Glycosyl hydrolase family 32 (Niastella vici), 503 residues
Amino acid sequence: MRLVFAAICIISTCCAASLHAQTVYHEMYRPQVHFSPREKWTNDPNGMVYYNGVYHLFFQYYPDSTVWGPMHWGHATSKDLVHWQQQPVALFPDSLGYIFSGSAVVDKNNTSGFGKNGQPPLVAIFTHHDPNGEKAGRNNFQNQSLAYSVDNGKTWTKYAGNPVLKNPGITDFRDPKVSWYEPEKKWIMTLATKDRITFYSSPDLKGWTKESEFGKELGAHGGVWECPDLFTLEDNGKKVWVLIVNLNPGGPNGGSATQYFMGDFNGNKFTPADSATRWLDYGPDEYAGITWSNTGNRKLFLGWMSNWQYANVVPTTTWRNAMTVPRELTIKQAGTSRYIASTPVAELNAIRLNPVAWQNIRVQNTFEVGTKASKIVLPGRLDLNLEKPNDFAVILANDAGEELEIGYDSKQQQYYIDRSRSGKVDFQKDFAGRAVAPRLRKTGSMDLKLVIDVSSVELFADDGITVMTSIFFPSKPFDHIRLRSPGGTTFKKILYTDYMGIW
Ligand code: FRU
């Protein structure tokens, strides 16, 4: 009897274990503190808007496959920017085409007239991409359209007068980001138009007038400009206008990446303060990042955590791709320049647990950050503080001999992430390798925050002035974190906390 019981137990534990491995949101490589669709393909975040206590995250979605295809807007909601609930698909392709990227606004004054019973509508402004027009070799197959919701974003109705902004003959004419320009009480659409940004304005979201163009001669142009954003940040009591422009390819480490400009916008024209090219994230795996609308003085940013170089072939099973953690943007000084700094939103601190801390540790060769028998179970967060940085690295490792190395090269004054020995790397030729980023704040002590999920790391260095995001696919989970410094480095503070998974 006992034997039988034991046997059943063994069988059921083993079944439970293998069942668990296949449970949705717990598959191999499934991010545990990042949003990813329950199944199938995603790319850009879309229509990010905060309304009535809910953060809406729409996303480029193909519900029929794990590779890119006819685009829909998937939908997820969150009350805390940490836990996400996937909702029914918000927008389906129609006779005008696929639903490409775009934004959403709260039309507080009901300028569009879509509101009902005194309730303001949520209005989504997106690109209709007509695949037939593209195939036929026409140049006007991308046009801007509207959809609205009068039930807090639950269901969406497409505007009967779509498209509202017709293509004048520009093959890449897409990704509208709309915001309210209070001084002139009008909407501004920031649109990616091939190798520049074109600004349009509208009193009612339905009729649009061209205001100006920006950027043909400025910034990085290794590829097409996509997914822009325009907003203000406070800088010592002054308002600074920020223009985000995503670029594919031509990123600092190859493929797709997010650049930005700082300057002024007067309702008609964006004037940059200088001609520098700045990158919001130097890593290979943050793209199409933009900010939530209607969040007051807080500016919250989130990007797609992949790269067009290999997004279609990464070795996940039932879903493909995820988003970065939401990040709060501020302006900070480094040397004589101002930069945008990113920090993982404070809301994520609510899921940190089991802190282990060390102080004034001299690492000569290696130091185990592990908690239980030198082991860790990802996800987790590592904070490091150094007085004088010498060369050092944070190594994620498993007992299959695979390693992901995140480090600092003092001679080059560069941070780097090397994933050449991180496990599965040969699914695409550009995946393996070492990505680098300049240390922009070169003086003072160095601080690093690392958000480490089971298949991604986000590095926020020097108050978040230099940021790098990278994904990885070890053959077995990384369960060691080691600090390594052959020449010796003193860490003033080391703090590791587990993250409680969000699914
Ligand atoms: C950026 C992008 C957008 C486009 C969407 C299509 O990743 O190419 O420009 O709207 O993806 O899925």
